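Ticket reopened. Same input as before:
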Amino acid sequence: MSSHAHSAPHAMPAPTGFISKWVFSLDHKVIGIQYFLLALAAVCLGIVLSVLMRFHLVWPSAHLPFITGGQMTPEQYLALVTMHGTIMVFFVLTTAPQSGFGNYFLPIQIGAADMAFPRLNMLSFWTTFLAFVAIIAAFFVPGGSPISGWTAYPPLSGLGQVTGPGEGWGQTMWIVSIALFCGASLMGALNFIATIIDLRAPGMTLMRMPLTCWGWFVTAILGLLAFGVLLAAGVLLLLDRSAGTSFFVPASEVVTDTLLNHKGGSPILWQHLFWFFGHPEVYIAILPGMGVASHLLSTFSRKPIYGYRAMAYAMCGIGFLGFMVWGHHMFISGMSPYSGFAFSVLTMAIGVPSAIKTFNWLGTLWNGKIQFTSPMLFALGFVSLFISGGLSGLFLAQPAVDNRLHATYYVVAHFHLVMGVAAIFGIFGATYFWFPKMFGRMMSEPLGKLHFWITFAGAYCIFMPMHFIGIAGAIRRYADYTGVQYLAQFQPVHKFMTIAAFITAAGQLIFLWNFFWSLKHGAKASDNPWHATTLEWSTATPPPHDNFGGHYPSVYRGPYEFSVPGVTEDYVPQHLAPQEVPRSK
Amino acid sequence: MPIASVNDVVEIIEPKRGGPSGPSKPPRGFGGGGNGGGSGSDSPGRQRAYVTGMTVALGGILMFFMALVSAYIVRKGAGTDWRALIVPRILWVNTAILIISSFTLSRSRRHFLRDDLQGFRHWWYVTTALGFLFLVGQLIAWRQLNAAGVYLASNPSSSFFYVFTAAHGLHILGGLGALLAVAFHKGRRMSLATSSSVVAMYWHFMDGLWVFLFLLLTLGR
Amino acid sequence: MHRDLRIRDLRSKGSAATPALLALLITIMVVATVYVFAANLYPAPTAITAIGEMIDRQYDMTLWVTGIVFILSQLGLAYAIFRFRDRGQKAAFTRGNNTLEVIWTSATIILFVGLGLLGRKAWGETRFTPAEPNAIQVEVTTNQFAFNFRYAGPDGKFGRIDTKQISASSGNPLGLDSNDPAGKDDIVVPTLTVPVNRQVELVLHSQDVIHNFYVRELRLQQDAVPGLAIPIHFTATKIGQYEVVCTQLCGLGHYHMRSLLNVVSDEDYAAFLKASAQ
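Engineering reply: fixed in the latest deploy. New output:
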């Protein structure tokens, strides 16, 4: 390649107007920030919904000022369950780590000027935005938001208003929103994959990519293969609801003494299609977090990541196996018990790459020189939460034990720790770490630490007790505990978890304050404040429109060259040519 | 530490085993990555990305249709209400038209590779026309079914028939848009070579997909 | 340069307070969790079937394995956090160790997959093995938001169901066909009564949406799916009254969809059949 190609100016000069710069921007960095802000709005809403749920479980008869009738009804509670799950899974856990940080940092970390298809990127964001508008609209349509949970099992979700309020317009809005989201995610996945395959800088081999990029890469492949399936299922469900077809709705349905006119559809078919998407979705949420955690643990231990290849292969292994374990959500659904057992063994096997990652994270810390910055604290928290939440999965992976634990709070505790809170810790770590690069200022360290202590302790206080009552038989998705007698005994634990949830939720205000205050008043950040090695730290802060200012980096080594013997500094950036590395005499 | 030569340093920071290592100099050209992405819109990396992007997109589309196909197979086995659908005869004609359009498209591309732009355009237009003809044929098939009293909700077999043909038809419609866009190509971001090859990939894929669906609907009914 | 140094200080403040606090929090979490399990603070009720006990054994084994891994890895993390905090030392330069990778990969494969394979027995007992031919047959029909249990009555035959005749309001929630003589003596009751130490086979149906039959003392959970008839079986070994709950989200009344399982002596069971036949 000629040096001319290297120093050629960017094909698209930076736009100047407000609209083209900040609204319909083609710049992956702006789009990344747009995604991030969308996810931030969504997570605030999702937390408010969960706090309302926790409040209702403990004080079911309390009067709430903003609810019609003053007291929360069971269907309103279920609407909260559904909307909390949907918003958190799709608009936070899928949006922030992949579309947000991935969009911003993937091109810079591999030394590209932008994503492969900037227009598609913009389209993808605005489609996601429309999907978000549609899901918010579900709150305001007649009947309110749907009550069938984020999994939307038919026939409950397939029959319309007869099965409950919110199952009319609300459920339709839900399907429309999810279909839009699927489309947007497919566009995003395509863009990520093409960018990684074709736009890497000279010298940036796959095995020199930061593990963050591996996380985004595998996640994009999962998204590409999974979202099309959910889209297909959503189309069929919509037809069942509105066109009278019978894909999922069985024959001879009788709802409140009325015989409905459907033919022999299969409700379990929906579950297969949904979970074929739904299980990879779990990894879509967590893989970018794994990448970020690996990146931060190495950077702040000042040590190369332990077992880089094993880490990259483990991510691929998780992605591969992730498509073969969906049936473990359906052990008690009426699916063949033999296939249930096969799914069980495969699910136990997917614990292996997860364990490899954990061991390597511990190996990275071992004999390191650990610096306890806010991003590092969240990365360490991630490891702890991932261990706890991951191990509890080994119970649910066994159908016999699942007989006992399915649909209890144990399940809620398990997936919140491992894919909810852990993934959120990945997002927080990424935010504290990359904020200086994105906005040119540092976030406040003391506030970041305070935020960490509250969130870390709070997360365990909320979700650890949830395991205990789940093992004892507490059922999830119940609007209150007056119906089933044995549930009353868990009320003190519920109270404890609710108070912990209040405190943890309030603790997030510290983050919001820190974020927005630091935008204007944070200490000015240098180009490489953490003394990190990857390409985003080789360019200006914040990066120019074309990322590297008309100059394109070459890559000479792997991403985690810390504490290399014989080198002056304790880090060797990827872009430094060997003769430029300062050596100790 | 004694004073090391430059090569020694390279050895130290780039050990050959057990980690993300590689040659000390960045590989040039193909092999070790692209060309830094942003260096001009007609750079080989960008053009390659269009081909990669289309390959990847076809993978996503394939998953969408495979989900429908597996739903078809499961649903057919699950209920007792399945009645085989006799597909309208015109589908045979439509299928033939679509297969022929793939041949005309290949022909068009061969002309392009021989730098015969006129022949390229000629066969490209023929392909586009055949694509339109296919869609019209599919609409006629729908009308015939409707006239016979077979609607979307009549039977799961008819539901799937309409879903398959509608989903595939929408993709063909998109393909027609792309064919037209290439036909009136003004040469901006994508070179004509890239855009015609990417659209051809898509069109051949849609052709093959239709043959598969058609076999499923006729043999697997 | 000056500014950069300041931020560098911030990066590596050599204070031991932060690592100590984090290591302490993790340790407290581990100790508290172990304590809750050791002291059995939230006991699950004892299982009332032999298969339930088998499931509990599998559960206990999993608890031991994961518990040990949990304690070791969390405490290892806490130790590393405190021990390797920045005290101005130089970090070791290593990229990993292939032997170690192979060891822990094989170890986890054996441990996790082995555990999964061991679980086959209990699962097989609940689902692979069909009910004995002389098991008591009870048909369970669910709808929003109730359970109905049907016994065949003295003739041993279930009457035909006609969905058009379903009418909970007129006392025929299952839609028993009034023209079928086999259905005349069928017993339909809202609670489940079974004799102790006799195998019972339930066949689960649903009229509207997906429901679930869960009795925690049985360690048994199964969805009732409309359009399907799903059999499950159990042999209760302890007389008593237990709660049956729905665990599959079925609509706004999901939380109060419950029934009772009465496990009674053979005499009481005969009396129940007699009384219900009236």
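The first strand of chain A starts at residue 254 and ends at 255. Chain A touches chain C through 130 residues (CB under 8 Å). Please confirm and we'll close it.
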